[in-house]
Amino acid sequence: GAGVSQSPSNKVTEKGKDVELRCDPISGHTALYWYRQSLGQGLEFLIYFQGNSAPDKSGLPSDRFSAERTGGSVSTLTIQRTQQEDSAVYLCASSSRTSGGQVDTQYFGPGTRLTVL
Amino acid sequence: EDQVTQSPEALRLQEGESSSLNCSYTVSGLRGLFWYRQDPGKGPEFLFTLYSAGEEKEKERLKATLTKKESFLHITAPKPEDSATYLCAVQAGGYQKVTFGTGTKLQVIP
Fold it and tell me: Mind listing the pLDDT tens digit for each residue in B15-42?
């Protein structure tokens, strides 16, 4: 079936503008994660959704970052008043529990490359 | 706080030259350790999940092993198409958060 999709693939914006990044998870996956990957860095956890609720927002770097998920499917990550340090690749992953219900094997989208000028 | 450290940061191999990548972790209550492959400009691609010490999994030229403190990704007779960044990640305790290492960038020279 279809994998995780993200849009846009690339976004160039000016400092101070707001941006919205979209993630379409694999159909039927209940969990959705957002990560940020800066050049040469590892994946930085931002937020996790189970269904439409976000029990773990601990990774959001500031109150300029917010995310929502509707209908247990599509998620949007919004960055307000963008700064140059927000430039990075934003990755979305979705998962469903293994049959043993132990861990969440995540499947990633291709990412959105955000450049703030 | 969960910590994942990968070594080396970069590895250059001749085609056919076998080697291993290391992932050391410090967590409380490991539930799963993951290996991913990431090609430039793409999202990580899932390779393996390991659940407990002593477990091993294989896929083509790759074999992942797990101890109580670290995991190894063994690459046997690598080919140029194995060139990528290999990421290790853990999920532990009662949390859904997955913590990633910074990866090992592998280059296989023909």
Answer: 999 999 999 999 888 989 999 999 998 9
Q: Tokens in use for A106?
A: 């995540």
**For A19-50, how does the pLDDT look when each residue is reduced to its tens digit (9 = 90+)?**
999 999 999 888 899 999 998 778 999 998 88
Residue A86: φ, ψ to 5° = -80, -10
How close A110 gets to chain B, by Cα (Å)? Answer: 4
Angle at B2 between CA B1 and CA B8, to 5 degrees: 130
Tokens of B68: 């109580």
Mutate to test the interface with A, among B2, B25, B97, B102 (most CBs of A within 10 A): B97
C-alpha A1/C-alpha A42 separation (Å) is 28
CB contact B27 to A (< 8 Å):
no
